Amino acid sequence: MNKLKMTLLALTSLALTSSAAFALDDAGRDALMKDSKCTKCHAADKKKDGPAYKETAAKYKGKADAEKKLFTHLTTAPEIEVDGAKEKHVKIKTTNEADIKAVIAWILAQ
Q: In this model, does residue 81 exceed pLDDT 50?
Protein backbone atom coordinates (compact mmCIF):
# COMPACT_ATOMS: atom_id res chain seq x y z
CA MET A 1 0.00 0.00 0.00
CA ASN A 2 2.81 2.41 0.82
CA LYS A 3 4.45 1.85 -2.60
CA LEU A 4 1.12 2.49 -4.30
CA LYS A 5 0.68 5.80 -2.45
CA MET A 6 4.21 6.88 -3.31
CA THR A 7 3.71 5.97 -6.97
CA LEU A 8 0.40 7.84 -7.13
CA LEU A 9 1.96 10.85 -5.42
CA ALA A 10 4.86 10.85 -7.88
CA LEU A 11 2.55 10.53 -10.89
CA THR A 12 0.26 13.25 -9.59
CA SER A 13 3.21 15.58 -9.06
CA LEU A 14 4.47 14.88 -12.55
CA ALA A 15 1.04 15.46 -14.07
CA LEU A 16 0.62 18.75 -12.25
CA THR A 17 4.02 20.04 -13.32
CA SER A 18 3.44 22.41 -16.20
CA SER A 19 5.59 22.09 -19.31
CA ALA A 20 6.14 25.84 -18.90
CA ALA A 21 8.18 25.03 -15.80
CA PHE A 22 10.73 23.51 -18.17
CA ALA A 23 10.67 26.45 -20.58
CA LEU A 24 13.80 28.30 -21.62
CA ASP A 25 15.45 30.89 -19.44
CA ASP A 26 16.13 34.33 -20.96
CA ALA A 27 19.56 33.36 -22.33
CA GLY A 28 18.19 30.15 -23.83
CA ARG A 29 15.28 31.98 -25.43
CA ASP A 30 17.59 34.63 -26.86
CA ALA A 31 19.93 31.95 -28.22
CA LEU A 32 17.04 30.06 -29.82
CA MET A 33 15.74 33.24 -31.45
CA LYS A 34 19.20 34.12 -32.75
CA ASP A 35 19.84 30.56 -34.01
CA SER A 36 16.41 30.59 -35.71
CA LYS A 37 17.37 33.87 -37.43
CA CYS A 38 14.45 35.74 -35.82
CA THR A 39 16.70 38.68 -34.96
CA LYS A 40 17.75 39.07 -38.58
CA CYS A 41 14.34 40.50 -39.49
CA HIS A 42 12.83 41.48 -36.11
CA ALA A 43 13.82 43.59 -33.11
CA ALA A 44 12.04 44.31 -29.85
CA ASP A 45 11.10 47.91 -30.55
CA LYS A 46 12.08 48.81 -34.10
CA LYS A 47 10.94 47.64 -37.50
CA LYS A 48 13.47 45.82 -39.63
CA ASP A 49 12.40 43.68 -42.60
CA GLY A 50 9.69 42.34 -40.28
CA PRO A 51 7.60 44.09 -37.66
CA ALA A 52 8.98 44.92 -34.22
CA TYR A 53 7.94 42.48 -31.52
CA LYS A 54 6.26 45.40 -29.77
CA GLU A 55 4.10 45.90 -32.89
CA THR A 56 3.26 42.18 -32.99
CA ALA A 57 2.30 42.24 -29.30
CA ALA A 58 0.01 45.23 -29.91
CA LYS A 59 -1.59 43.48 -32.90
CA TYR A 60 -2.49 40.43 -30.82
CA LYS A 61 -3.26 42.17 -27.50
CA GLY A 62 -6.47 40.85 -25.99
CA LYS A 63 -6.99 38.23 -28.71
CA ALA A 64 -7.73 34.75 -27.35
CA ASP A 65 -6.10 33.05 -30.34
CA ALA A 66 -2.85 35.05 -30.24
CA GLU A 67 -0.66 32.21 -28.96
CA LYS A 68 -2.18 29.73 -31.41
CA LYS A 69 -1.67 32.04 -34.41
CA LEU A 70 1.93 32.82 -33.50
CA PHE A 71 2.64 29.14 -32.81
CA THR A 72 1.38 28.29 -36.30
CA HIS A 73 3.36 31.16 -37.83
CA LEU A 74 6.59 30.08 -36.17
CA THR A 75 6.25 26.38 -36.91
CA THR A 76 4.83 26.17 -40.44
CA ALA A 77 6.96 28.56 -42.54
CA PRO A 78 4.07 30.52 -44.05
CA GLU A 79 4.57 32.70 -47.10
CA ILE A 80 5.24 36.34 -46.18
CA GLU A 81 6.00 39.49 -48.12
CA VAL A 82 9.32 41.29 -47.63
CA ASP A 83 10.05 44.40 -49.67
CA GLY A 84 7.33 43.44 -52.14
CA ALA A 85 8.72 39.94 -52.72
CA LYS A 86 7.07 36.76 -51.44
CA GLU A 87 9.18 34.33 -49.44
CA LYS A 88 8.76 31.64 -46.81
CA HIS A 89 9.10 32.69 -43.18
CA VAL A 90 11.83 30.70 -41.46
CA LYS A 91 10.62 28.05 -38.99
CA ILE A 92 11.81 28.24 -35.42
CA LYS A 93 14.65 25.77 -34.91
CA THR A 94 13.03 23.58 -32.29
CA THR A 95 10.07 21.26 -32.00
CA ASN A 96 9.96 21.64 -28.21
CA GLU A 97 6.51 23.10 -27.59
CA ALA A 98 7.46 24.63 -24.22
CA ASP A 99 10.41 26.45 -25.82
CA ILE A 100 8.25 27.76 -28.66
CA LYS A 101 5.64 28.95 -26.17
CA ALA A 102 8.36 30.69 -24.13
CA VAL A 103 9.37 32.64 -27.25
CA ILE A 104 5.73 33.49 -27.98
CA ALA A 105 5.10 34.60 -24.37
CA TRP A 106 8.11 36.91 -24.61
CA ILE A 107 6.92 38.37 -27.92
CA LEU A 108 3.43 38.99 -26.55
CA ALA A 109 4.87 40.63 -23.41
CA GLN A 110 6.66 43.34 -25.42
A: yes
